[in-house]
């Protein structure tokens, strides 16, 4: 087991049972060390498989860890506590839902569900959407939860802060009423549960004799506290991480946890790994050179003896469509050479970028698989079916009620729903609870819907999960609705995929033949026998199987939404955001959209911390590749209905030229670019967009990145003079003809966006 590890890795694997930190760069074997340590601990008899708790960042990583583990040791990994923070907390709360004051069938809101729940709350509270935009309220609530704060813990200095705390409270009340929890709540509840209930806490502290954490740099304050609480006084925590790969600060991740852990717990037991086993020299040196531009680093060295390999290739295309086409041609060539498609990854900064790439791959019939993004379980038609399923499981789930009460249309109008919501608010009940009190015809229509849900719930007592889903699709009217829809065919196919996904899930979890709504007999009996508060005191706490197949599937859909089951197993090109690629590796990687404002993202450019996080993200992207790395960019891009003309990403300039090979001619910055123009490249995003409707035809746009007005041609980088503002540089362009605009960075007058047809500008 220890063979093939280098001495530092071996030291890490065989450390005595104390807190320890492995701090090392990308591809140095952190995850491998962590997995090997799990196997080693088991094999040397220091702990049984069930005495381990291991946390990883994605479900994919958790599965991979279990696969690697069973390759090292012939053990049954089923039922082991290996998963994401959310997955493990969910499991804890299901097992102890009573103590956590949750209904057994509590539903999990993803962030889109959460946003609509917040909008509903704001509306019920009569809150002005202008003053308290739902997204801001959502960010505030999630931020508070990540810091472990309840409404009463907030600092309410002024009226505004008091109001926000009040909204947070109202949202919580609504969630309680509906029996739903959001992602942040999963963690906070689980934390509070352990903190409050000493017997439960002590049980798990005894049970887990070793805790291991991968990607430690991305834990937030609450996750860290949860871990240390679970560890208690005796359980050692083995954490591995890389500060240069901390990419979730925007979601509350706190690199400070590493420093704190090192100082307070690991006290000097820090192991560094310096040899990279993943990437060839050019790739590794590029990544090292790039990250050296960051100032806030703990500092590490990484070297490889894998040889130089090929330089990074850089490709610039006129448009995103051409970029996608180029990618597809290239990938087909790689596949023809015999490279497995799954060893090829296309990475992008934002989900929205995947569309043209998917389109090109699809047209060329190259199999591909998208992680994240418009996830399978997030597609509209899937969410509709899931909403029906959730109502079967828990009719008080108002979010689901609102989603499908009038979908497909049943003639239930907005007024009826308002009336229903008012009644529900008055009697403090769920929407379902208010149906009986809605008078007249409206009441009758609502009652019919309530009856439909009851009938579906009845069906769940006999049908198994895949059958139930087929039944719901049919009886809800969704099937007829999509059949009548011209574009409904795709959606129907996706619904069929949902049935397939459910069948696979049932088989995997051992639920075959069980009615969807029934809790497996053994688990139910165990829980019944142990009584409400003895459940955890029987030596083994209730298994996650206290859930019915339906309940388990709904959790799975909320928590593991990342994978499109439909294409599992197929040898397919991997598409994902850079965030989703963390921890993974591929033979060939394409990083796309290397344009200012896109990567680095425009939102990050306002402060140095934001830019450093983007650079760490780029570091993660670069270090995913083993052999071949290609960087692509487009001069124009259609995004969110806007055409944007971006400059080359600064990250390309931060990689030493000796590692790059330009496949397409390197576009020089425009000759007219004045010497001070460097300023905007550091300080500002490089783009400007406008509504798509007023654009010149696509073909015309993509021929050049310039915009012609009269006899002058404006390009990005052009020097210009304005009568009042003086001299400046064009940093972004959009539109054409009368709609053409330029964003100009003036030397003295700051940045202005000017209509080219109106402003009197002279190209220098
Ligand atoms: P990241 O920071 O990206 O998560 P990591 O530090 O977790 O990377 P691993 O994924 O564990 O790195 O390892 C990177 C690659 O190097 C893997 O393919 C792994 O199998 C391989 N590897 C690790 N250690 C060794 C070794 N001693 N000999 C050969 N290959 C190794
Ligand atoms: Mg790793």
From TrEMBL:
Give yes or no: UniProt keyword Ribosomal protein: no
Q: What is this protein called?
A: DNA 3'-5' helicase
List each copy of the UvrD-like helicase C-terminal domain by range. 281-583
The root-end lineage is: Bacteria, Pseudomonadati, Pseudomonadota, Betaproteobacteria, Burkholderiales
- Which EC number applies? 5.6.2.4
Domain UvrD-like helicase ATP-binding positions: 3-280
Catalytic activity field: ATP + H2O = ADP + phosphate + H(+); Couples ATP hydrolysis with the unwinding of duplex DNA by translocating in the 3'-5' direction
Binding residues annotated for ATP, in chain numbering? 24-31
Show the CDD domains listed in the entry.
DEXQc_UvrD, SF1_C_UvrD
Task: Tell me which species this is from.
Answer: Castellaniella ginsengisoli
Is ATP-binding one of the keywords UniProt gives this record? yes
Q: Which residues cross the membrane?
A: none
InterPro entries found in the cross-reference section:
DExx_box_DNA_helicase_dom_sf, DNA_helicase_UvrD-like_C, DNA_helicase_UvrD/REP, P-loop_NTPase, UvrD-like_ATP-bd
